[in-house]
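Format notes (please read before filing issues)

Several people have asked whether sequences and structure tokens are stored in separate files. They are not. Every record keeps both together, in the order shown below: the sequence lines, then the token lines. Line labels are part of the format and must not be stripped during preprocessing.
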Amino acid sequence: MDKVATANRINEFLQSVVSDGGLHLKYRIVVDPPAKSEWEKPEIFVDFSGPDSSLLLDRGGELLRALELLALEILHLPSGEHDKISFDCKNQRSMRFQELRMAAGVAAEKVRQTGTPYHFAPMSSRERRMVHLALRDQSDLRTESDGEGFNRCVVLYPADYKPAAGKPARRTLP
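Then the structure lines:
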């Protein structure tokens, strides 16, 4: 991937979205940014700011994720390379990862106490990866992704869990 050419294509896309959409946003595109976490090391990082930032962050950052997904589609990146591009606004991404880590910790304790699997709510592949990584060092537990499409979620099991005949009960955090 030619990072500079890719950054330029993202810029062209965002210029049209921001101007044609009448959005009051600024964005900064950084090639090879310093790593923000051990789990995410994008090659191109786009950081949004401005009066309309709240629009990007409404409904759990739905519009921000949609813009990122559209950029990935325009670039024709294979799914294995999606983590090379990262969009953020007001540090929402790292706050979400902290939230996922805390949820993983709570779920781990619940599974240890009850001995039953825990099903997280459906989430994006990037968020599922964060949950898997947050729990990877828990030798008494194991994680798997389950479901399809937008309903795909992480399931946390005791390491030695063997399902009874039939499906295990679904459990989610309130």
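For reference, the curators noted about this record: The chain has a mean pLDDT of 88. DSSP finds four helices and six strands in the chain.
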